[in-house]
Specification:
The protein is about 45% helix and about 15% strand. The chain is an alpha+beta fold. Helix 24 packs antiparallel against helix 25 and helix 24 packs across helix 26.
Length: about 625
């Protein structure tokens, strides 16, 4: 696990100086406090900061092939590196025991086709000194981040935006479309970043810099290829695949544990570890006055069943006030879903004991876990209702008493009736929409942008012939998972020099999910049906019957109490420092409505507070 970066002057071939990499590398110190490595070869330079996980002594990077014509830097882990090494040892001489060295020898033999052999989470770069070619690739589902800037005849890349901004010469112009996307969904997804000249490398893609040009290609794409199978067959295959995945991801030369919620996925990981004879340390976040949001009791139930070394990590408004400004600064772009702060808190608390944490991310996207899929089923019937009936239902939903409880009835009904009038793919987004197009105009009257839906629409042609719910799963897998969930998890754990692993996104689990029919993933209105069947013998009945709640916090109540003054102060400071940025009166109105209980503006307010803190640092 590392932070990687590099620069190549591909147009001019002007020699690179090592000093150009020093400041950007310093910005990655938290990602790799154990070691630093730099390679400068004519007009190309690679750098890395290392967090030692595997081969603590000899795994220094860059790693070279035998004649040192190829060099690689890697961020991530290759879980099948031992099997690959056995295949390669007869033809290559290894000088380390690290997973990184497998990549350089595979690339030596297969070039970019080596990607088909790798099972892991990664972003890596290979410099071919003989051909003067740079090759960069990112893992299939976007577990590890990679940002780049193609500017002024040079390609820059790094694991983090803040590191890229430390290179001399990269402009900080705002991408207005990215800003509109952020306000609509409270995160920014590929290929954009908040800065116009910085882009995300999309998951499953690679970059080749050769012959004075930069080419981006896709090397992997998720595809639905359902096979005929019974519930029993599917259940057995899931159990076997998950057990194999967890076994692979336990490979580590440092202590590891699990971020445990009361949900199916992280609970399943603990169950598989127990079956493998591992007694893990488990960590669960709990909230001050958390009410329906607390998952402590469910997590303790699992911890007792498997006799884990369990730890509760309490989190409250004070933690947000202390951590949010610094976290936004380190993200270098706004992110409105504050649950990542709770994840960061668990990471900071657990880092005293463990360097690697397994998480349950990915299970919902692969096996149909989100309630919006059930909403899509209901939406089919809603479309046929007369217009007057739909208008009456919308009016009735809007009159419901405002509640900030977890997945409250008024939240679900208001979200549904606002979105269900649109075609299903748009409705799927409308359920999650933060600011409407009209509200964005009120907030930023001069902002010129296209429809924020374009960030999702770019993926729809790829699944035009798929079933509706498969298309919605595909959107979540390609947008929400990598750019709201995985991106934030990577950053907040790496801020603490901790590696987060995701067994549900192992290649074997991905391949299996492509084959399992949709009707086994969601049955009636029961989400994740086949996962519940597969894990029934391992999990407490209370966990199996628990509806999907999602990872969320009682932020709505905190904004009325412990976070009220903090939020008001952030708005006031933003207005004073940058009065022309937006319509601050609209932001103040949102806070007033929320505190008076007239509307639940939780997500709008967290979105704006993060934006204002970001613009204070970067505009």
């Amino acid at each position: 696990m590392c932070g990687i970066l590099g620069k190549i002057n591909y147009a001019s071939k002007v020699p690179l100086r090592e000093a150009e990499l020093k400041r950007p590398l310093f910005e990655l110190l938290h990602r790799g406090p154990d070691d630093e490595g730099v390679l400068i070869d004519r007009h190309c330079g690679l750098g890395m900061r290392r967090l030692s996980i595997i081969d603590l002594q000899s795994g220094r990077q860059p790693v070279f092939n035998e004649d040192r014509s190829l060099a690689v830097v890697l961020n991530g882990e290759i879980y099948n590196y031992r099997e690959l090494r056995k295949e390669l040892e007869g033809r290559h001489r290894f000088t380390t025991n690290s997973d990184t060295e497998v990549i350089v020898h595979l690339y030596e033999e297969l070039g970019e086709k080596c990607l088909s052999k790798l099972n892991g989470m990664f972003a890596f770069a290979v410099w071919d000194a003989k051909k003067e070619e740079l090759f960069i690739a990112r893992d299939r589902t976007g577990i590890k981040p990679l940002f780049y800037s193609d500017f002024g005849g040079a390609l820059y890349f790094s694991s983090e935006i803040r590191s890229l901004l430390a290179f001399n010469g990269i402009p900080r112009d705002i991408d207005n479309q990215a800003l509109a996307n952020y306000l609509s969904f409270y995160y920014i997804s590929s290929p954009r970043s908040i800065f116009r000249h910085i882009r995300r490398l999309t998951q499953g893609h690679c970059i080749k810099v050769s012959g004075g040009k930069v080419e981006i290609e896709r090397y992997w794409q998720y595809s639905f290829r359902p096979k005929k199978m019974t519930e029993h067959e599917a259940s057995e295959r899931i159990e076997e695949a998950l057990l194999n995945s967890v076994r692979r991801q336990l490979v580590s030369d440092v202590p590891l544990g699990v971020f445990l919620s009361s949900g199916l996925d992280s609970t399943a990981i603990v169950a598989m570890m127990s079956k493998l004879g591992v007694k893990p340390k488990t960590y669960t976040v709990g909230y001050e006055n958390g009410g329906t949001y607390n998952e402590l009791d469910g997590a303790r139930l699992v911890a007792r069943k498997y006799n884990t070394d369990h730890h509760d990590c309490l989190f409250g408004p004070r933690n947000i006030i202390e951590s949010l400004p610094n976290t936004v600064s380190r993200f270098a772009e706004p992110h409105g879903d504050w649950t990542y702060l709770a994840m960061g808190h668990v990471s900071a608390q657990s880092r005293k004991d463990i360097t690697v944490a397994l998480t349950g991310a990915g299970g919902d996207e692969l096996f149909a876990g989100y309630p919006t899929l059930s909403a899509a089923k209901v939406g089919r019937f809603y479309q046929y209702l007369p217009g007057l009936v739909k208008a009456a239902l919308r009016a009735a939903a809007e009159r419901l008493p405002v509640s900030t409880s977890r997945l409250s009835l008024d939240f679900k009904l208001k979200s549904f009736t606002r979105g269900a009038a649109f075609r299903p793919e748009v409705a799927h987004l409308k359920y999650k929409e933060i600011f409407t197009a009209f509200e964005i105009k009120l907030l930023l009257p001069g902002l010129k942008h296209e429809d924020p839906f374009e960030v999702f629409a770019q993926h729809l042609p790829e699944v035009a012939d798929a079933r509706l719910l498969d298309r919605l799963l595909y959107l979540d897998l390609n947008v929400f998972l990598p750019y709201c969930s995985l991106h934030a998890t990577d950053l907040v754990t790496m801020f603490n020099s901790q590696e987060a692993r995701v067994p549900f996104l192992d290649n074997e689990m991905l391949d299996l999910s492509e084959e399992i029919p949709l009707d086994l993933k969601i049955k009636g209105f029961t989400t994740k049906h086949i996962i519940r069947k597969a894990l029934r013998k391992y999990l407490p009945e209370e966990i199996l019957k628990m509806p999907k709640k999602g990872f969320s916090m009682p932020t709505g109540e905190w904004l009325k109490g412990g976070l009220k003054d903090f939020t008001r102060d952030v708005i006031s400071v933003a207005r004073a420092k940058n009065p022309g940025f937006c319509n601050y009166a609209f932001a103040e109105k949102l806070l007033k409505e929320h505190c008076e209980g007239r509307r639940d503006n939780t997500r709008k307010l967290t979105c704006l507070v993060s934006l204002f803190l970001w613009q204070d640092k970067y505009i």
